[in-house]
Amino acid sequence: MTLWESLVRSDGRPSGALSDAARTVRLADLAEGSFLSEPRETLRNRSVVLAIRDPLTAALTMVELDGVVRRMVLCPAGVASEHMPHVARTADADAWVSDAAGEPPSIPVEVRMDAGRELRSCAPDRRASRETEWVLLTSGTTGAPKLVLHTLASLISAFAGRPEELSPGRVWSTFYDVRRYGGLQILLRALLAGSLVLPDPEESIPAFLGRVAVAGVTHISGTPSHWRKALMTGAAETIAPAYVRLSGEIADQSILDALRAAFPRAVIAHAFASTEAGVAFEVQDGQAGFPEALTARPEHGVELDVSRGTLRIRSPGNAQRYLGDSPALKDEDGFVNTGDRLELRDGRFFFMGRTGGVINVGGLKVHPEEVEAVINAHPAVRMSLVRARRNPITGAIVTADIVLERPETDTRSAESEALRENILESCRRVLASYKVPAMIRFVPSLDVSPSGKLVRRDA
Amino acid sequence: MNVRSTITSMFETVAREQQRQLAALSDDLKLLESGLDSLSFALIVARLEDTLGYDPFESAESFPVTFGDFVRLYESSHP
User: ipTM beyond 0.90?
Assistant: First the structure.
């Protein structure tokens, strides 16, 4: 079933609406019109890049094109222009949809059209021809995004066919971009039952929360970093949701407690989900981590495996594969390894950081190797180890342990202080500010494993 | 140095490092209007933990909104 078919109620029209700071669009309007500048038919069976700046326009375009196009690539805000040719080529794109502010095609395409803000009347042709491939972007090791392939079925598997998850009348909102996995989950839930208030990229948090309050939002989601920021504005208490959801980063006890205090009557739920693995579970008891019992037997077809020390997930919500020459998305048993290390304490699993070392600084991924390469290029440095340090504001920050060419340097001397500043300066020149180590420690040596690799232990 | 002056100088150092224009640090200054971003606050909290030896956010029940709240959080959590 296509997204449109899922939205249509017994009277042939979808209910619900999507709104942003400037406008509200009733989904029923899409029955007789289109926001695209050319007939939808022109895009049939094509691989289409949605390079649309405006999130609401992008959301409406997804509804229009599911079931029509062969593949659609969702480009969230902030994908660097330099990466777009790689994205378009990897997706085998032959069509491009953008809006006034969106990216022009970065490779030659056969069809190009605009998605506008005005509804154009057109014949209500809703002939579906196929199951559309949905492609999401996620950050890769080299800085170029990886392309993750889903279908509508895998994207909605956490709530499709579960009436308790889809009770109508819910008003959803999210801090996420709806073109990222976490935001797309909320968009799709709202489309299937309810309405959605979208954030505006240009809007301040208090202004957004003001709209959320006025719209009577009942269900709202974001990452722990989104929520910390919202709490720091002092405007969070102006909203009164019945349900507050965290996902995308590890929810620690302090953010769970702070949300409990701010929203005493709300259900505070933290979910584990990733673009590749899909939604694995949701915990509502207000405690960090998750009960061991969740790993005992599959619920809704989601199997969790912790036998190798990291969380592995096999589920109908898993993505199918990566496009292009990325490594396999699933292991030999068909599980997605999340790389999140777990520790069992008193019947509960707690997240202990990641293997492979990706550091999550407020939702932005930092690959330690990239930072180490910059540090190691400094003439006074022999080797370095970049790792995460837990942080109550951004979840983690970057720190570096450095072995100097002359390790006997007194680490408290003025000379060593100047050297530390000099190394940081070389990092600031080439790295984004969230990748620059927050602190540098000079150490006499670093552990190297028998296979010759730096031993990485996450803080 | 007392807690307040340690915090004040940490705000100034990090603002300089991150090349951010720091507003005058009065007690009623909203943190989000101080000119600092999330990363700056993350750096401040991490370095204060190293300097003062504790992280009051671990047991904080609510997030500070103003600079005054921030200082009081550290003062009241002093071990």
Answer: yes
